[in-house]
Amino acid sequence: MGAFMNSISHPSELFAMLEYKLVRPAAVENPAVDANGKTASEARFRSYDYLNRTSRSFAAVIKELDEELMDPVCLFYVILRGLDTVEDDMTLPLDLKVAQLRSFHEDIYKEGWTFTKSGPNEKDRDLLVHFNYVIEHFLSINPVYQTVIADITRRMGYGMAEFCTRRVATVEDYNLYCHYVAGLVGVGLSKLFAASKLEGEVFSQMDDLSNSMGLFLQKTNIIRDFLEDHLEGRLFWPREIWSEYCNDPEELCADQNLDKALACLNHMCMNALEHIPDAIEYMSRIRNQSVFNFCAIPQVMAISTITLVFNNPEVFKRNVKIRKGLACKLIMEAQNVDVVRAIFLEFLNEMARKNNNARDPNYVRISTLIAQVRWRLHTRPALDSPASSERLRLPLGMLNTPAQVELPTAWARVPSYLLHHVLARRCGPTSSLGLRLTDVTKTKLAPDGHWKRPASGLDTWANVLSSVAIGATAFLAARYITVGELL
């Protein structure tokens, strides 16, 4: 009920939640369990169990990967979560923590190895106490995947150990720390994609783009989690930035310093936005649908989150999160790179509207940066790829001639804005296809060749309430769409 009430003023999100519930396949709780409720491997079962416990959001996208990648990526995440648990444990003596971080990549090859020295209140302590199951599963996968996982674990462990003895002082330090804890994750995932043959060999060489994918996610989390980290005695915002606005980060939480706190917050957001063009470039090169969804969903969540926290005083008072309805909407929409680019542009436009405080010392710089990022996304050549047809729910990408979309006559009474919404979601941009609706609506393409986004119409309750019965089922019409070439 809470999610429903939070989205009550955003009808399109209610529509998306309904679609998510009825159309999207239910996630498998644990892939190690067969249809009869039995498991052939206790180690594999435990790995997915810990994956579900540590992060349900990442678990969901991992379990939707192609079978070839599912286990390697699951293990990659769980092993790095174990490493991260060691880094985050403030009860461990510094010398023990540093030594363990530097040897973790060797320990994952030791059958039966566990770590029992974590503090009693460490939330993922149980993972390390029973890490022998993860190791058993790790040793059973293809050695090619093992090599990638071990190498990234080594590089990350040494990087974490380095920052155990130094603070994040400069922006350069900040970028380096984010590289160690998140950029390397992107690098490792790209190498796993290439090793699986689901993506081209070029992915094993895309370190810069892979790094940007990780940095954008990590910086967004660091910005959002300022208060939580502050209360736990940690700070990842670089001194080079926060020292421009205060003498002590504690001052950012004081009401009388709100203007300075927001200026500092916006400065941090500005730093993160620089990675967006690389992220879009990376996603434009993906060919496999499950890999695309795995990469795109966290990215659209990140752009929505950073837009939410931008110029938002609540960041210094509570943990700010996007609405569940918005999350469902983004998950259902982020099915191809052109739609993802449109989502990014939409949130960048929202951020530009929120940048309305001329007293902010970064007001002009932020406006300029947002304009530059939008310009790069707008003017980038068409992001078509040989696999575009694989990403579309309809075989539209296979057509080189104009096509028409035919709907059953029974659907003629469905409001055009809902049909528009369905087709835009199912078909994505249609710049090269010249699609048109027949016998239903005369909706035309926007000048840029994309379907106009339905937010203004669909988020008007008068429109929704006038046809709630049909609206509740309109998206199901997409399951009956047929596409044919015009003669």
TrEMBL record:
Any Pfam family the entry gives: SQS_PSY
GO molecular function, one term: squalene synthase [NAD(P)H] activity
Chief location: membrane
EC annotation from Swiss-Prot or TrEMBL: 2.5.1.21
Subcellular location: Membrane
Pathway: Terpene metabolism; lanosterol biosynthesis; lanosterol from farnesyl diphosphate: step 1/3
Domain of life: Eukaryota
Keywords assigned: Lipid biosynthesis, Lipid metabolism, Membrane, Steroid biosynthesis, Steroid metabolism, Sterol biosynthesis, Sterol metabolism, Transferase, Transmembrane, Transmembrane helix
One GO term (biological process): ergosterol biosynthetic process
Catalytic activity, as annotated: 2 (2E,6E)-farnesyl diphosphate + NADPH + H(+) = squalene + 2 diphosphate + NADP(+); 2 (2E,6E)-farnesyl diphosphate + NADH + H(+) = squalene + 2 diphosphate + NAD(+)
GO cellular component: endoplasmic reticulum membrane
Enzyme class at the top of the EC tree: transferase
Xref: InterPro entries: Isoprenoid_synthase_dom_sf, Squ/phyt_synthse, Squal_synth-like, Squalene/phytoene_synthase_CS, Trans_IPPS_euk-type, Trans_IPPS_HH
Keyword Transmembrane helix: yes
Co-factor(s): Mg(2+)
Entry's transmembrane regions: none
NCBIfam families: squal_synth
Family statement drawn from the similarity comment of this UniProt entry: Belongs to the phytoene/squalene synthase family.
Xref: PANTHER family: FARNESYL-DIPHOSPHATE FARNESYLTRANSFERASE (PTHR11626), SQUALENE SYNTHASE (PTHR11626:SF2)
Function: Catalyzes the condensation of 2 farnesyl pyrophosphate (FPP) moieties to form squalene.
UniProt name for this protein: Squalene synthase
